[in-house]
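User: structure tokens for this one?
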Amino acid sequence: MNKTTSLLEQALDLPESDRAKIATRLLESLDPKAQADVDAAWAAEIERRCAAVDAGELETHDWNDVRARIEREIFGR
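Assistant:
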């Protein structure tokens, strides 16, 4: 078994939250500039949505109502 395979098997045995942290760090290490671009795009989108809500241009919904609707549609609850 090579070092990469051994490391992967060890990582897969970790709890989900730890695997997610590792996956995030690995992806970020591939192209840091691309991550910065993604972060900037999300920040701009958040600003746009907040401005639309403040201007009364978007209809908002209570999270509990949305979650209940999703559960009914997906899980039949």
